[in-house]
Amino acid sequence: MAFDENSTKTIHKALEILGKKNFALIIHGGSFPSAQGENTGFGSMNTNGGKQLIDFASGIFNAIQLGPAGKTKSCDASPYTGTIFSTNPLFVDLKELTTGRWSKVLSEATFNDIVNNNPQKDGNKTAYSYAYNKYADALDEAYRNFARRGEAGLKKEFMDFKHLHNRWLDRDSIYEALSIEHQNDYWPLWKSDIDKNLFAPKSIEERLEHGKRLVEVSKKYAYDIDKYKFIQFVLYKQNAETREYANSKGLKMIADRQVAFSDRDIWAYKAYFLDGWMLGCPPDYFSKDGQAWGFPVLDPERMYKADGTLDKGGALLKNLYKKMFRENPGGVRIDHIVGLIDPWVYKSGCKPKIEEGAGRLYSSPEHEFLSKFAIAKLDDLNTEVEADKEKRVKTLTDEQIAGYGALIEKIVIAAAEEEGLTKDAIVCEDLGTLTNPVAAVMKKYGLQGMRLTQFVVPEKPEHPYRCRNIDEHCWAMVGTHDNEPISMWAKSMINTHEGYLHAKNLADDLFADSDNKDDIIQRLTTDAEFLKQTKLAEIFASKAENIQMFFTDFFQIEDVYNRPGTSGDQNWSLRLPDNFNELSTIDLPEILKQAIISRGKDFAAKNAKLIEELSEI
After folding, report:
1. Partner of 266 at 20 to 30 A CA spacing, among 44, 471, 535, 578?
2. pLDDT digits (tens, 9 = 90+) for 206-251
3. The last residue of a domain, from among 383, 413, 447
4. Both 165 and 311 in a single domain?
5. What does the DSSP assignment read for 197-243?
């Protein structure tokens, strides 16, 4: 559904009277559509197709929530395992490199060949492996031509870029060189111990030896190292220009900081991680053995110096957040905020279970090894509750809460403020049950969490994801990238007992003033379209000041972007089709109208004219 200027004004007015400060479309970079005749197999906000979506979204949304933007591996498309500093080369707009603006460093023949042979050029999925290889060849051509005939001004900008970002760019590009040397981009398989530990020497002698090796690699692979930096330079410029374009349309971009570190990052900053320990989740209803993510854990003893200032590990993390806030003034979503406050860690090679030595990094004073990092004391624990349970830490002093929140205060909030933003630029993914320390830190610093209404437990009247319990200072949504679209969820609820429980709660929360609540409940339990629309109205009817909506929900695409716990090409591959303008979107005016009416007869009467205007769209 496309809206004219008057319609968008009406929609914005409805969002305003419902108390919504932000309405964000969630779409990861690879899922952006392509312009006609420009589908290379992977999406990017930097392309003409990306700008077409920005134009479309600007009439409705005021923000776009992106996914993680790091460089991914050839064998793994998940953006949540990408690099923390380097950007994914698949986000380069190759089309622009064929123009005079870049001295036509990429030939039109190469670009057209990529488009014409794209196995997904007529579908709405990425062709990840195809694009990964084709982009590598195309960018090699572009770099060779840039080195020979690149415009002098751009070359000067490139030199400045390399100098300004050398702190991370040098290490990431050296990794690229060593991947070529060992013909494998997974460093644990490299045969050379020096190369595996190039930036983690353990003695003065090793430091000298590693230094010589670094010089040797830098000379041998000077071309590949500089090419890597050139690709990052192109991305840096294109990303900045796209964000400026979006900003001119009234759209801000929100970045996504994943909890993971890539293989490249682990290798580059190995000395800052806790040796032999990994980040994961404890056993629960969904996983009896817990979730062994295999992500490294930053060493608490490398985060701060004795005087409380940041040590090298802390400085690394702060530099990352400063870069993200600087490049994304719309804000940053932090995936798994628990990982920064009260992470669950386990021994490498073991399962994340208590009996195999796992525990909370800062909440395990009884643990043989983790006790030295404990903020909670033994007296603070309810020892009748197992170590993996959320309520085990029963008491916390203000000093202890500050200890749990040190990374939040001294690194994340400090980074935002130093880049001219406030803590409201921080979006915390806190889905699921939180430990008491995490809840206390969120409250102390006034952090914005998430409320995912598809995950409400209907049997619990006070469940935090239920409409009437959602507070103002949060982001509400029906689902994220890990959920089935709300239309699929609604169909699964029809004529089920669980569906009836949801229907009853929705009727109580959104149709309290209706004289025919029983009829409404009956319709909600049998009419999937009505249930879907009511669940969408629920997030707007709630007190939440901020709303997010995944692109599959808004564009009514009945396909799943990612299924947690599974792997394969079906994950992370869903895109908006190139003809997305022809898709039937949700009936946003009707949904907003229902949300206004749900606020009660007096509120509806006060906004009767607006309700009428919404009905006419």
Report:
1. 44
2. 999 999 999 999 999 999 999 999 999 999 999 999 999 999 999 9
3. 447
4. no
5. TTT---SHHHHHHHHHHHHHHHHHTHHHHHHHHHHHHHHHHHHHHHH
